[in-house]
Amino acid sequence: MITKTKEVFQQEALSRLITLFQHSKTSKTDQKNKHRLEGFLHAGEYLGLITHEEGIDMLEQAHFEVFGESIKQKQARKAQYRTALNSDDLDFFDTPAIERLKNK
After folding, report:
1. Among the four 21, 22, 35, 89, which has the fewest Cβ within 10 Å?
2. Dihedral of CA 30/21/12/6: which sign?
3. What is the C-alpha to C-alpha distance for residues 66 and 29, in angstroms, rounded to an integer?
4. Cα–Cα distance between 77 and 31 in angstroms, integer?
5. At what angle do helices 31-46 and 2-26 cross, to 10 degrees?
């Protein structure tokens, strides 16, 4: 019984993460739903339905499914953008964004 409950919880958590990321991709992140999802994941961890590491893995999986890149890849891309912006690296911005994404 607990195995079934654990599987159902993990499927629901992943589904909620994907929905949250899809929504954030098309509009501003809904902070209320983000905090609800955080609470949901913490409750699952408290009840022993997921471990902290499994939660992180689900977060990575959902992020990759929606955005096509890992969270670390996205952070590195944003850091590169900020560095270019702060140093007035115009060559970085001469390359179309679609081309920069292909070269990641």
Report:
1. 35
2. negative
3. 14
4. 24
5. 160
The vertex-81 CA angle with 80 and 83, nearest 5°, equals: 65
CA distance 34 to 2: 27
Q: Which of 85, 75, 103, 32 lies closest to 67, judged by CA? A: 75
Contacts of 90 (CB under 8 A, 6+ apart): none
Please state, as a whole number, how many other Cβ atoms lie within 10 Å of the Cβ of residue 88. 8
- Entry pTM: 0.73
Q: Write the pLDDT tens digit of every residue in 29-56.
A: 788 999 999 999 999 999 999 999 999 9
